[in-house]
Design goal:
Blueprint lengths: L5 H4 L9 H4 L2 E5 L3 H13 L3 E5 L2 H10 L6 E5 L7 H11 L5 E5 L4 H9 L4 E4 L4 H16 L3
Parallel strand pairs: 1-2, 1-3, 3-4, 4-5
Helix pairs in contact: 4-5
Length: 148
């Protein structure tokens, strides 16, 4: 995983290039507090507006209260309580058009099939680089803004 100190040091770190990406509001969910803090810091440094949660219920409550305040939801797959797949299911009930990305250290065929079944927009393998994350966000924002 790219640490916050890597943002200034690495020539391979991409910053969001589009206006839409830099204004993108992301609901980020991970039960590992250190990972959560690092990602929120890193993505904030790159220009994203990141709202980090370690508790699924609080994250979903925030989304229910203001469903149009986010452009993307990113959730860890393996968490206590309920998984990222369940988070994705509930996000779809709240706002069906909201892109959901699941991060995981282990992505297999079963997870791919289950993720597709609940409408997950993308799976992001951990650890991921800031460049890969920015590219994914840009892709999702472009896909969502294209006319059907």
């Amino acid at each position: 995983m790219v640490g916050s100190e890597d943002v200034e040091k690495s020539p391979n770190v991409a910053t969001p290039v589009s206006q839409a990406a830099t204004k993108c509001r992301i609901l980020y969910l991970d039960d590992d507090e250190k990972v959560l803090q690092s990602i929120v810091y890193l993505l904030g440094h790159l220009g994203f507006q990141v709202y980090g949660y370690s508790d699924q219920s609080k994250a979903l409550k925030s989304l229910r209260e203001a469903p149009n305040d986010f452009e993307i939801v990113v959730t860890d797959y393996n968490m206590p309580g309920f998984s990222g797949l369940e988070v994705a299911r509930q996000v779809r009930e709240i706002r069906a058009d909201l892109p959901v990305v699941i991060t995981s250290g282990f992505i297999d065929e079963e997870l791919l099939d289950q993720a597709e079944g609940v409408g997950v927009s993308a799976l992001l393998p951990k650890p991921f680089s800031a460049k890969h994350f920015c590219e994914l966000v840009q892709q999702l924002l472009t896909t969502e803004s294209e006319p059907s």
